[in-house]
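Subject: Integral membrane protein

B.,
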Amino acid sequence: MTTQPIAQRRTYLIGKARPNAIVGKNRQTGEIALLVIGAFIGMVWGLAITILPLRIAGLVGFPVLAFAAVFMPYRGRTFYRWFEINRTYRRTLRSSAVYRSAASEAGISLDGREVEIGPPPGIGQISWLAAPFGPDEIAVLLHLDRRTVTAAIEIEGPGVGLRDSEDQEALVERFGTLLKHVANGDGFVTRLQMLARTLPADPDAHAKDVAQRGDNNAPAWLQTSYDQLQSMVSTSSEQHRAYLVACMHYTRDLAAEAHAMAKATGHSRDEGLAIVMARELNDICARLTEADIRVRQPLGQARLASLLHSMYDPDHPIDHIQAMTRRNAWPAELDATQPTYLQAKTRESATRAPWCHATAWVKEWPLTPVGVNFLAPLLVHTPDVIRTVAVTMDLEPTDVAIERMLTEKTNDDAEASRAAKMNRVVDPRDVAHHTRVDQRGEDLASGAAGVNLVGYITVSARSPEALARDKRTIRASAGKSYLKLEWCDREHHRAFVNTLPFATGIRR
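Prediction pasted inline below.
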């Protein structure tokens, strides 16, 4: 009797064990510049000052201060990383920390158009457009400050946990094919964002539906049995909504294509950009169908405004689009003065108390091999927490990613050679990192696209106390997913934007 070997499921290595920089490990250019400036000032001080005690104090003190600002822990970060955050926060408190919407006083012009009002701080200037998308229309946003064009569609979650291992692997492979097509194709979409929105649902919705639509003539034993079964079900209920956001960066080629489309259709150049985005999304939707991910509906201006409104006020149902326009998407009041959370309130709120929002960024992705469902504790297994998980993927062609991988591998091999000549002990983190680079090189050689990831998580609650409790719950769930979070204190009003359907949060 023989047994067939069990095929080992593929694991995924996302995070880097020891990130590299231009000089040193995990150092920013500004930090290196600060160290150099501190050493230079100390040297000049030592040459210019003739008094020996002052010369020694300056010669040693300035480099030590620069070293402490870059390396010494300070409230979970370093003084260098806190400096710009504190400066921006103080400037925000002086200028635009409190926002109040002028939608109720703006009025409507004689031709029926609504008078535009500005969005809350942190979002920037936005221009709303609409383009035909099959039988419907889709809202296209022009982000003038970031020079990007975005549009969003609602998709059904792939339900990976409900599939066996072979189907899970096949689904991930097909989604990888989508990313490869978008990155290596001749289209203009250079960035994708996945939004997973989790909201509380009515726990008695099923019981109400049975009472309304049930058959009163059914046998009594059947009704009793069903009531007993229903009483055994948990009363906690959630609704999960998933969205895909496509982003185009404004380039010379995109401007020429938009001008050609506008000239062919008789529209303005901005409307030409919207038509190009609709065309790109049509192609992406076809690829999503091949990847077994069903597209529910495109987000027109009313649906996108309703989604944005529900981000600030989770009491607002996402599907209620009556009277939802682009200027009604923003909250009535927004307060960014609190350093540890953001407060927002709409005119339709059930109570006068504002909602509290806190945003964290994924500081560290898994450094160990993980399976397909590694985010399940964060996405599914955290009940009664209102949250939005946003993952933004910046795509780059395969040839560019291979060049970057080869450069990184060359640096790693050179460092390993130097360590061997100096008889240093082999760092296991370096070995894990080399394995990571080799696997990424094999994937890129097979045609995979280069993907840069960034993740943000926003937690919403009614009170600061409930928000603090939910933040602890999310941190524990993130730990089960092998993630390390860092809350964006003193900049929540800017970090909150990264969980909106704008495909932001990553530098290009």
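The longest strand covers residues 189-200.

T.
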